[in-house]
Design goal:
The protein has 9 helices and no strands. It is an all-alpha fold and 206 residues long. The radius of gyration is 21 Å and the shape is globular. It comes from Streptomyces kunmingensis. This is TetR/AcrR family transcriptional regulator.
Amino acid sequence: MTNPAEPRKPQASAPGADAPGSGRPANQGRRVAARNRAALIAAAREVFAEQGLNAPLSAVARRAGVGQGSLYRHFADRVALASAVLDENVRQIELAADGPGASLKSVLGVVTWHMTRSTAFVDLLRVRGDGKEARALAGRVHSVLARCQPAGHALSADDLMLAVAMVSGAVAGPTLAERERLALRAWKLLRVEVGPVRPWEAPADE
C-alpha cells in the first residue's frame, strides 16, 4: 500500500501531451512551439474539411499530435483557430506567387488545392465574409491574382476573383478526388488554364 505521506510520482504523459518538467524537450523552445502551431493549423484544415467548422477541437489536437493545452495556448477559441487556417491558406498562395517560375496557372493550382480542402476557405472565396478580416483576406487573394496576371489575359483581376468564387461553388463531393475533378471541370468550362493542383512547398534549403 502506498504511504500517503510519500509524494506521488508524476504519471507519464500521453503522446503529444504538454507535461512541464517531464524532461522531454518536445514542447520547449520557440522552434518547437512554431512547429506545434503549424501542425495544429494543418490538422484543423483537414478536420474542418472532413467534419465541418463545428468539429470538436479535441479532434484537431489529436490529429496534430499535441495536447489540448497546447492548442489553447496558441488559439483562444474556435474562431481564432479558423482565422489562423484562413490566414495560412492565403499566406501559402502569396508564397506560391513569390516563388521562382510562378505564373497565374501555378498559383491557381495552389488556390484550387486549398479550395478542395478547406470549407472555410471556400466560403471566403464566395465573398460571404462580412467581417473586416474576411474582406482583408479576400483582398490579399485579389492582389496575388492581379500580380500574376499576364499581359493581355482575357480576364481582369476582378473577373478572376469572380471565376474563383464560381469554381468554389462547384467544389462539392464526398471525396477529395471528386472535389478536385469538379473544380478542374469548372475551370475548363470557364476556359481558364490551371496548373497542377498541389500545395505550396517551401524550398528544400529553408
